Amino acid sequence: MELLILILYVLSTVTLLISLQLLIKSSKTSPKLPPGPVPLPVIGSLLKLGDKPHKSLAKLAKIYGPIMCLKLGRRTTVVISSPALAKEVLQKQDLAFSTRSIPNAVHAHSHNRYSTAWLPVADQWRSLRKALNSNIFSGSRLEASQNLRRQKVQELIEYVGKCCQEGVSVDIGSAAFKTSLNLLSNTVFSIDMADPTQDSVKQFRHLIWQSAVEIGKPNLVDYFPILEKIDPQGIRRRLTNHFGQILELFIQLINQRLELRRLGKSGAENDVIDILLNISETNGEINKTHIEHLCLDIFGAGTDTTSSSVEWAMAELLRSPETLKKAKAELEQTIGKGKPIEESDIPQLSYLQAIVKETMRLHPPAPLLVPRTVETNVEVCGYTVPQGAQVLVNAWAIGHDPSVWENPTSFMPERFLDLDIDVRGRDFELIPFGGGRRICPGLSLAIRVIPLMLGSLLNSFDWKLEGGIKPEELDMDDKFGLTLQKTQPLRVVPFPM
Ligand code: HEM
Questions:
Q1: Is the CB of 306 under 6 A from ligand 1?
Q2: Strand 390-393 and strand 378-380: pairing?
Q3: Any ligand 1 atom below 6 A from CB of 442
């Protein structure tokens, strides 16, 4: 008996020592993950995301801090929610965080293999970004395409003028979408894609918006890769359908252009599609499939983001009559009542610019930016972001943080009048376009078009909410996708000034 007790005693001591040794070893070697909620078995913290992940994650960040780690199914996700940490990830350690985390849905039509938005930072991505930057977004290209924007904004004002005469309301998001679409389609293909039969525009907008919803929606396949083949929520299947319809349209337009080139009848346009086709003939990195997917990127990322910013800005102004009055007063003093606005006027319109910034602070079109990942363990402020983790930067949470912004939920453009804060990716308190090498390439276009459209709408008409809705009753709820939309489209009635 005594021998048995002795053996048990020795065994348990040895076991205890080995366990202690293992514990010490593992605490030395295993990474120190950022804090976060204790995960449930199997599903982790998936249920905490809800249908508005930007808001749920902002709430969780109040508990766990500006860098937190969540286990979502099998996937580790690190969420960044402060300007200092956003700077760390998007600027100081930009290269380590510059690979995209690719949602399974984006494999539809192999978009991940051709798209500027999803390719890793390597030669193909560089060639595509260069093609975009030099042929659409460079200062000289944008100067040269001013006339086009002037003309398309004038068409928007004429359309609203017609609604004004007929006494009917305007769906601001939809009208601004049509303008953004025609702006881009003229830049790329030299045609108006939004034709007067409004239905085709509605259909295209629906496809773009539904694609953003499907990409942004939490997808079980991303958290349990074993489900890939089953696609239980049907997200990849639906995105394949949406992408298919959009790509089909671009393929037709590109083929028509190739046929014209073959017959020697093209060249006069010298638009983006011609330039891209020229590049593809000399640069092995870009082929016809890349061009089709580049069109999907340009129209997918550039239409709804721009038009929903105009819609949110108008909604905030109609909720705040004093601010609307001040905006109109500035336009009247600087431009003259009812006169058309030029892009060169925008630097003088500081209140209008402040309105655009304040709108993007409260309603960043991409609330979680576009997800990133890390290819090796990366140290951030004493924590380890483990290899393969998805990294989300919550621009919405930063814009609503009371330790960064006074009265963060109030729409107060005045706050920007004395603040040297810009949206160009240098000030991490306000990062609607992201930052670092993957910053939105469309930024330079968007910051011309949004104030131009908004200022023109304000300086040409007086506005009232449809159906006698009082300003304080306006529904400001948002719908989450890769981009953030107004749940209830804004309908307003224009009046002559
Ligand atoms: C209000 C307007 C817009 C907003 C708020 C916006 C926002 C963003 C954001 C947050 C990203 C991700 C940046 C990051 O990861 O740090 C992005 C990427 C991108 N945007 Fe925009 N965008 C806008 C307009 C446009 C326009 C007009 C275009 C093109 C016509 C465009 C094309 C792209 C592309 C191609 C990418 C992927 C870049 C890459 O991954 O290398 N965007 N945008």
A1: yes
A2: unpaired
A3: yes
- Minimum CA distance residue for ligand 1 atom 31: 442
Helix (H, G, I), strand (E, B) or coil at 361: helix
Ligand 1 centroid–CA 329 distance in Å is 32
Closest CA to 219 of 53, 66, 366: 53
CA max distance for the chain: 104
Tell me: the pLDDT tens digits for 338-360? 999 999 999 999 999 999 999 99
E strands within 50-101? 67-72, 75-80, 99-100
Q: Which burial class, exposed, middle or buried, applies to 250 when counting CB atoms under 10 A from its CB (0-12, 13-18, 19+)?
A: buried
Burial status of residue 289 (CB atoms within 10 A of its CB: 0-12, 13-18, 19 or more):
middle
* Strands 390-393 and 75-80, bridge-based pairing: parallel
Spell out where 37-97 has E strands. 67-72, 75-80
Chain segment 210-242, per-residue pLDDT in tens: 898 899 888 999 999 999 999 999 999 999 999
Look at residues 179, 208, 206 and name the one whose alpha carbon lies nearest to residue 194: 179
For residue 360, give every residue at least 6 positions away whose Cβ sits within 8 Å of its Cβ, in sequence order, or none. 309, 399, 423, 430, 432
Q: Which residue among 440, 445, 482 is best mutated to probe the pocket of ligand 1, counting the most ligand atoms within 8 A of its Cβ?
A: 440
Tell me the C-alpha distance between 388 and 211, whole Å. 25
All structural domains of the chain, each given as residue ranges with its CATH number in brackets, are 122-371+412-495 (1.10.630.10)
Residue 330 region by backbone torsions, left for phi larger than 0, else alpha for psi between -120 and 50, else beta = alpha
Q: In this structure, what token pair is assigned to residue 418?
A: 């004395």
Query: Which residues have C-beta within 8 Å of that of residue 106, sequence separation ≥ 6?
Result: 112, 115, 118, 215, 239
Q: Is 446 close to ligand 1, i.e. is its CB under 6 Å away? A: yes
- From the list 75, 44, 370, the residue with the least C-alpha distance to 223 is 75
Per the confidence metrics, is the pTM higher than 0.70? Answer: yes
Ligand 1 binding pocket includes 298 (Cβ within 6 Å): yes
Q: Which protein residue has the closest C-alpha to ligand 1 atom 16?
A: 434
CA–CA–CA angle 362, 478, 314 (5° rounding)? 60
Query: 234: how many CB neighbours lie within 10 A of its CB?
Result: 12
Give me the residue label for tokens 């200062």: 139
Q: Rounded to 5 degrees, what angle do the CA atoms 64, 69, 72 make?
A: 120
The number of the ligand 1 atom at minimal distance from the alpha carbon of 100 is 40
pLDDT tens string 236-245? 999 999 999 9
